[in-house]
Amino acid sequence: MASIERFVRTKPLDLAKLEANVTAALPALPIRAVPTVYSEPLPDYVEHTEGVSRVGALTAEAVVRDYETAAKEIEAMGAELVSAATKCEAMTADVHNAIAFMRDTAAAYREEAKKIFKRIEECALFTEDVRKTCETVKRRMMEDRSIA
To answer: Is 102 in a helix, a strand, or coil?
Structure first.
């Protein structure tokens, strides 16, 4: 019973002081700088369509760069497998099959990137055509109202 009475008689917990004590006890963590974006040229298997809006072009570029990065990583994996094949002759045939699969996969990624790139730019052109058509219709409606 005495321990309960002592607990009840103690002053309430100061949460602000507790937080300050915990914060002071933690080491300061360094803030990492955000890396700069390095823009590489577009892969040679795509090129911008004339008249595509900046948003459409930038979106297409971002998507094709992601696909190209993935394709390069797939090819890098193929290079690692070539090295493994020299160390392990018993697995050479399987490794060569895997490399062929990776090259095919990289080619398929590039082909898919090309399709998506083209599709995005076509959508951007179509959107621009729709916008121009709407402006023309709106202008004609305004002209008809002024004539009537």
So the answer is: helix
Q: What is the pLDDT of residues 89-121, one digit of tens each?
A: 776 777 788 899 999 999 999 999 999 999 999
CA distances from 106 to 72, 95, 117 (A): 7, 16, 16
- DSSP character for 125? H
pTM of structure: 0.40
State how far the Cα of 98 lies from the Cα of 65, in Å rounded to an integer.
24
Is the distance from CB of 45 to CB of 67 less than 8 angstroms? Answer: no
Question: What's at 13, amino acid-wise?
Answer: L
Whether the per-residue pLDDT at 33 is higher than 60: the answer is no
Contact 64, 128 (CB under 8 A): no
Under DSSP, is residue 52 helix (H, G, I), strand (E, B) or coil? coil
Structure token pair of residue 130: 């729709």
Contact status, residue 70 vs residue 109, Cβ threshold 8 Å? yes
Q: What would you report as the CA-atom Rg of the chain, rounded to the nearest whole angstrom?
A: 31
